[in-house]
Every structure is written in structure tokens, then in C-alpha cells.
Specification:
four-stranded antiparallel β-sheet; 10 helices
């Protein structure tokens, strides 16, 4: 699958002006391949022919990624008529970010999803045994945890998100890594199926309270405590919504409620906007 951002499209456009071929990444930085030129046409390694006009379209849309299929550039976006939500993959300084109805589901400060995921996982090091990743998204956290964990179970309720993940080169391991178990469904319901103490580590990176209030509930926190082994760690991303305008300290509130749910300690990590808790 060929996926391009405006950066790679610009490189190919420049080659149409001055070269017979160009070395460029067709998978968002994972590898380099040769694209040949024939007048106003770019010839991809798989034989697809992309016209100059299509490349100019990609260059003119720097806030979205494109896949090339059937010699045509298609936006990596989709609209759900049932929910009225619009989904797209947008380029960043590192891996693509997921955007839903104009709201980015990743922290972009410091370089985008890649350094953010690395910083979060560092708080849990060493990651061993079984891991629960409650909200899969594009799978970056699950993929990172699976590098050292015995098994990662990750859950995603939104099929639109998984459809985009399947088109994202940096999400391939979510579907290919045998140590990752991807469950499709609502984690607030599926969590009841897991045994007591089933996981050594839990990573809880939910959408905002407005979108998924049940994932911040006392009932759900109690379930997180139940399925985590004694001595296990929970990483809960909270962000800092309302901290400036309404003087709301959500991380502190979450830490207090986690303690009330049975966790022996819960501390804020300002750098990642997370709370790290330990099960008694």
C-alpha cells in the first residue's frame, strides 16, 4: 500500500520537473523506494501511474494523508453517517495522528505520537507479562508494549478507527504481531470477562470524558483494580482539560478516585499528563 503526505508528494512533483526517477518513502518513512517519471506522470514501483494534478492535490492538502490505489489518490478519511463523526489521519513530525471531528486523539507537542507514546511507556518500564491496553486507537501503545510484554490485549469499539489503522503503515504490527490480541467492542463491557488479576500492566488512554464518561466512572476504575495483579501498575492518561479556564485539576481528581477504588498509590506525571497508580 502506498501512503503519501504532502512532503513525499512534493518530492515526486519536483522530480517530474528535473529527474527521471526519485528515491522517496511511500510508507511514511518506513522505507525508501524508486518512483520513475514519464512527463507529467509518476510511475510507482507497483506500476500505478499518478498524474501531476493528483500530486498537486496532495501537496495542497497538508492536513491529511492520502493512499494511492488504482492510480488515484484517496484521502485517508471517512464519515460515519450514524454518528455524524468525521475521521481522518493527519501527518505529524513522527507517526500519523487520528483526528475525529476536528479533535486530535494524540498529543502533538514534542513531535507527535511517537515521542509521546515512548514517554508514557517509559513510566511503566519494565513492561513484562500480560498487558491490557483499554483503548486501542491506531495501536501505537499496544505495539510499543508488545516489544517486551508476553501478551498485549487491546480493545477498540470504533470500527472507523480500526479501518483507518488498517491503512496506516505505522499500525501494521497491530494486525501482524502474534503477541497482540485485538478485541473489537466496548471495553467497559468486555472488561467484565477478564479474570481477577489477569494483567501485570494496564494502559488506560481513553477519549475525553465528554465522549466516554463511562471510562472515568468509579465502576470502571473498580474493574481496572480487579483485573490488575497485586503490585501491578496502571497508567491512566487524563490530559488537563479545563485546567486553565476553569481551574479544574482532572489528574488530581482521577488520582483521588483511583485510591478510593483500591489502588495503594496514584501520582501525577506532569510531562505526559498521566496518572500512574499501583494496585495493593
Amino acid at each position: 500500500m502506498i501512503v503519501l503526505s504532502s512532503t513525499q508528494a512534493r518530492q515526486i512533483l519536483d522530480a517530474l520537473q528535473s529527474a527521471n526517477e526519485v528515491e522517496v518513502s511511500l510508507d511514511l518513512g518506513l522505507s525508501q523506494q524508486t518512483v520513475r517519471t514519464d512527463g507529467p506522470v509518476a510511475i510507482m514501483p507497483d506500476g500505478q501511474r499518478v498524474m501531476r494534478e493528483e500530486l498537486e492535490q496532495i501537496v495542497g492538502g497538508p492536513e491529511v494523508l492520502y493512499r494511492v490505489e488504482d492510480s488515484h489518490a484517496w484521502k485517508l478519511s471517512r464519515f460515519d453517517e450514524k454518528t455524524g463523526r468525521f475521521y481522518k489521519l493527519r501527518p505529524t513530525e513522527s507517526w500519523p495522528a487520528l483526528e475525529i471531528s476536528g479533535v486530535t486523539m494524540h498529543r502533538l507537542v514534542g513531535g507527535g505520537p511517537q515521542p509521546d507514546v515512548a514517554a508514557k511507556l517509559e513510566l511503566l518500564t519494565p513492561i513484562r507479562g500480560r498487558v491490557l491496553d483499554t483503548c486501542c486507537g491506531l495501536g501505537y501503545t499496544a505495539i510499543g508494549a508488545a516489544r517486551t510484554a508476553e501478551r498485549v490485549t487491546t480493545v477498540e469499539a470504533d470500527q472507523n478507527v480500526l479501518a483507518l489503522a488498517a491503512l496506516n503503515p505505522h499500525s501494521r504490527a497491530l494486525f501482524d504481531n502474534s503477541r497482540i490480541e485485538l478485541l473489537r467492542g466496548d471495553v467497559s463491557e468486555l472488561i467484565e470477562r477478564f479474570d481477577d488479576g489477569a494483567f501485570n500492566v494496564i494502559i488506560h488512554d481513553p477519549p475525553t470524558i465528554a465522549l466516554a464518561g463511562e471510562l472515568y466512572s468509579d465502576r470502571f476504575y473498580g474493574e481496572l483494580h480487579r483485573v490488575l495483579r497485586a503490585g501491578g501498575k496502571l497508567l491512566h492518561y487524563t490530559g488537563a482539560p479545563g485546567s486553565k479556564k476553569r481551574n479544574v485539576d482532572l489528574p488530581s481528581r482521577v488520582a483521588q478516585r483511583l485510591k478510593a477504588s483500591g489502588f495503594s498509590s496514584a501520582r501525577k506525571d506532569e510531562a505526559t499528563a498521566c496518572v500512574v497508580a499501583v494496585r495493593r
